[in-house]
Write a structure and sequence with these properties.
alpha+beta; Jelly Rolls; 2 domains; 6 helices; 29% helix
Amino acid sequence: MQLINPFDRSSLRESIRTAEPFPHFCIDNFLNESFANEVYRSFPTFNESKGMGQEFSAINEKRKIQITDSSKFPEPIARLSRLLASAEFLDLMSELVGIPNLIADPDLDGGGIHETNAGGRLDVHVDFNYLEAKKLHRRLNILIYFNRDWQENYGGYLDIWDHHVNECRGAFAPIFNRACGFATSEISWHGVTPLTCPPGIVRKSFAAYFYTREAPAGWDGKSHSTIFKARPNEWLRRNVLMPGEQSLNQAKRGLDSVKKKIKSVVQR
């Protein structure tokens, strides 16, 4: 079975490389329908996922569960993961996006199964740019959605923004068997709009991120974690909630540092 549906490579390559404000794409009916249905049916429920992965409850990212351990994937999802990590797929994405020597991350740091419950959200951000332990530069994201009958008023759209997060330049509903992706960089601002769906509706996707050993052109040598920004109409988040959480996290890190020093002194 051919797992990815055929498409016009030349046309898609041109579309991606000329996309603004940064290279991105949206492909509907991405997977063979039979395979997409297998993956869809194999997704764990939100409650099942709680015991399988990491749950997020921060200001910037909440009511989301992420499962990165591939040993916990049902077989259809494991098969999808292997497909996205295959040499053939990496070569395809390198050709389309124009980034040679792409590498898949076997540990799926930040990727894998994503499930977000009603009331969840993911603020606009640029992703971490470097895996220090593996000496890899993050270069490309792909997200495949598995949500049937997704309604416009459910929210949960992938939105992309200009360089200053002043203007939304695209919004993509997480509909069944749609693949969205983009080249990650210091200007690839994106997020997930708040989920306003009824209780019991869960936004489901599978994410894979790709890297290179070579640094991207213009890299300043500095690594960073995920950087969040509020949307233009989110005054409270920008001026109160996000600075408050940042201060709290800094205080926690400072306290952890003090505890380590005290422990070191006591052990001497």
